[in-house]
Amino acid sequence: MFKVLIRPLEISDAKVSWEWRNDPKIWELTGFKPNKPISFEIEHAWIQKVIADKTTRRFAIIIDDIYVGNVQLTDIIENESAEYHIFIGDKNYWGKGLAKLVTYQILYFAKELLDLKNVFLKVRKENSAAISVYKRNGFARVSKDGEWLNMNCNLSELQKPTVSIFVMVYNHAPFLKECIDGLLMQKCNFNFEIVVGEDASPDNSRDILLEYQNRFPGKFKLLLNNKNIGAVNNQDAILRACNGKYIAICEGDDYWTDPLKLQKQVDFLEVNNDFAICGSLATRTYDDVITLTDIEGEAGVFEQRDLAERNFIPTASVLFKKEYILNYPDWALQSPVGDWPLFLICSGYGKIKILNEQMVVRRVHAGGVWGANLHNGKSIKNVESLLLLFAILRDKFSNEINLLLQENYLKQVIKLIQLHLKEENLSEISRYMQILFSEGYTLAEETNALTEAITNKIAAQDKELKDTKALNTALMTSTSYKLGRKMTRLFSFLKNI
């Protein structure tokens, strides 16, 4: 398996490519034999000339970070057509199936960035291996010219990549290079695209992304929002732009560490049709300090009911089929959390496999959605978000799943009562207690525990204040005593509802 990329040809590439130009074996494949030996100086001057030619776009083929050949588009007619050429100069990489992946990348570039309609080529009719590669990338025979075949690829019918990698970016500049490098290092025998939604970040995230797209133009589809549209709408736009059979997710502040991640997951789902999602374990980092023993996720086989109880899938690890979200519901766009509803929808189509391997890293930092409060427990704001999430989800699935989601909804209400109890926020406690009883909440154990906690708090304060008359007077006027009296009346009222 190889990491396959194309990047713009550079003048320094002449140090390698001049030797290829003198190889008779390559002449046979390209159909071009120079009329004199090619020196380094000649090759250097030639590259300098052609990379300045605006009617051509020339790229180096990079396999596992090694320059092994060239691929180019020549005779470019803007928004119309171009002629395709390729040769792999390093014979160590012949017969490895690399031309298919390279060809797809330059066709993807021609379609997505140059907005061309057709790419054509000429190939020797006896070069059956090359003809097979071109056909698998969508080229069709047009005509025959002596010993040459003329072929054309209609880019409107360019095959879809096997995987689209979903990347949502907002203010991720400090982390973005590590994220993108982890995606580009993937070694696969299939094509993948990287679809990025950059949501008008005030930092230089966009500049970083454009630099990567210019460097590796056969991989990126950038959605550059003119103004901030918010995480939910950005997620929706990215998902719609993903054209792959499968979708993988890696947000801009997370990153992948296993170069075979995609290959392993695609291989698994291709042969296990009863599974809808494949994920992995994740290593969690806090402010860039990796704790190798701090692992997220649960390895094994799971079902939708497990996911209704808890979200155990590290988001950066997930892979699922695009077909599961072709009719993505409007209610999912109202959710304050994007990944959990998405996983619940997908898990309705099959089981969940979490591989027992740490393939990704989730970064916890102050700028993250949940990162700032993870060390000290969930904040009121985070629990309120989960409450809204379950309020949206609890009637969208089967009866069994809805009951589990309803239970999660009520658990968030109890958490909010407990958090507001610490703050002695009577009005919020009252509001959430009323929600609890209006939902027909009958788990007396938790309710009694809350009542006991409030009673003990009041009793402890009473003991401190009733020793003397002066303290007793203070008791009658204290905020704590008034809160206790109100809480006593509140619970008497609520228990009689």
TL;DR of this structure?
With 497 residues, this protein is of the alpha/beta class. The chain contains 17 helices and 17 strands. The protein has three domains: 4-157, Aminopeptidase (3-Layer(aba) Sandwich), CATH 3.40.630; 163-376, Spore Coat Polysaccharide Biosynthesis Protein SpsA, Chain A (Alpha-Beta Complex); 381-495, no CATH class.
The structural domain count equals 3
Give the second-level CATH assignment, the architecture of the largest domain: Alpha-Beta Complex
Give me the secondary-structure category.
alpha/beta
**Count of runs of 4 or more consecutive helical residues:** 17
- Strand coverage percent: 15-25%
CATH topology of the largest domain: Spore Coat Polysaccharide Biosynthesis Protein SpsA, Chain A
Helix content: 40-55%
Under CATH, the homologous superfamily of the largest domain reads Spore Coat Polysaccharide Biosynthesis Protein SpsA, Chain A
Q: Can you summarize the main beta sheet?
A: 10 strands, mixed
> How many E-type strands?
17
**Average pLDDT:** 88
Low-confidence stretches: 369-377
* Overall 3D form: elongated
CATH class of the largest domain: Alpha Beta
Computed Rg: 30 Å
End-to-end separation in angstroms reads: 67 Å
